[in-house]
Amino acid sequence: MFVFSCSAETKVDREDMKQGERAPFMVYINYADLFGAEQLCQMYLMREGFTNIELEKRKYIQAATVEKLKFKEKDVQEAVKDGFFIRMFEGE
User: Fold this and answer.
1) N or C: which terminal CB in the chain sees fewer CB atoms within 10 Å?
2) What kind and span of H or E run contains 28?
3) Rounded distance, CA 54 to CA 35, Å?
4) What share of the chain is helix, strand, coil (3-state, %, to 5)?
5) What pLDDT shows up at residue 91?
6) What is the pTM of this model?
7) Is-contact 72 30, C-beta < 8 A?
8) Order of all β-strands in the sheet with 22-29
9) Measured between alpha carbons, how far is 70 from 52 in angstroms, rounded to an integer?
10) What is the mean pLDDT of residues 68-85?
11) Hey, how many other C-beta atoms are within 10 angstroms of the C-beta on 78?
């Protein structure tokens, strides 16, 4: 599993953001290959209506660690179940 720290702009006005505003994200991708995981991260954010995506940090989480974390961390549980999980934080 990979975890990406990234930021992106919203393409349209949202309940809590205006068009063009940037927001930081943590994106969990349950995929074995870094290149594929990066592409999936960008695709999932675009599908949610974001653009100008900047991948700032990448971290690989070993399978044994994922097994331990999935009992404690809701984000990891969702990523294991669905293949990905996106956590958006307050604007930059």
Assistant:
1) C
2) strand 22-29
3) 15
4) 35, 35, 30
5) 54
6) 0.90
7) no
8) 50-60, 2-10, 22-29, 84-88
9) 31
10) 93
11) 17
Q: What residues does each domain of the chain span?
A: 2-88
pLDDT at 70: 87
**How many of the other CB atoms lie within 10 Å of CB of 11?**
14
What is d(CA 43, CA 38) in angstroms, rounded to the nearest whole number? 9
| The one-letter amino acid at 24 | P
Residue 54: CB atoms within 10 Å: 12
pLDDT in tens, 8-50: 999 998 888 899 999 999 999 999 999 999 999 999 999 999 9
**Closest alpha carbon to 1 in 77, 53, 52, 92:** 77
